[in-house]
Model the fold of this input.
Amino acid sequence: MVIHVSAYDPAWPGLASRAIDEVRGALAGRIDAVEHIGSTAVPGLAAKPVIDLMAAAPSLDAVADAAGALAAIGFDRHDNGMPGRLFFRREGAPVSYHLHVVTAASWDTRNQRLFRDHLRAHPADRDAYGRLKRELTGADGDTYTRAKTALIQRVVDDARAARGLPLVNVWEE
Done:
């Protein structure tokens, strides 16, 4: 798969908000929180046209049991090989959606949320990440991911250190 990176689209937060409302409805009573994460959640940041959402669940099994409710709104479950996380995908245009469901116990220390918050608060890091992503447009998915790892690791390390959290590999799961 060839990666396409787009300029920031101010429509992304609204699209995420509508999807969040749908996920909340489908998983009522099964999740504690759901947020827009990933590059499309950072104003001004270039991104692939994929809205990433992350939900916190007291029980991953309860969410897995509700996979039919998510399928009814277009989210199909995919095995991502990551323990302690469920992954659902909804294809679409102008964007696709990824839903990552994690344990409520791990919510406050999730690297994806820390990374998003850091990029929102540090424009120089946001801009460096955006430049790197644009340079990688046209790369295959594996090359794209590997080429971003060092920058992501540095930013996540900074974000974790600022909160007094232990440093971990960004690909922890």
About this structure: The CA atoms of residues 124 and 130 lie 10 Å apart. The mean pLDDT is 95. The two ends are 22 Å apart (CA to CA). DSSP finds six helices and five strands in the chain.
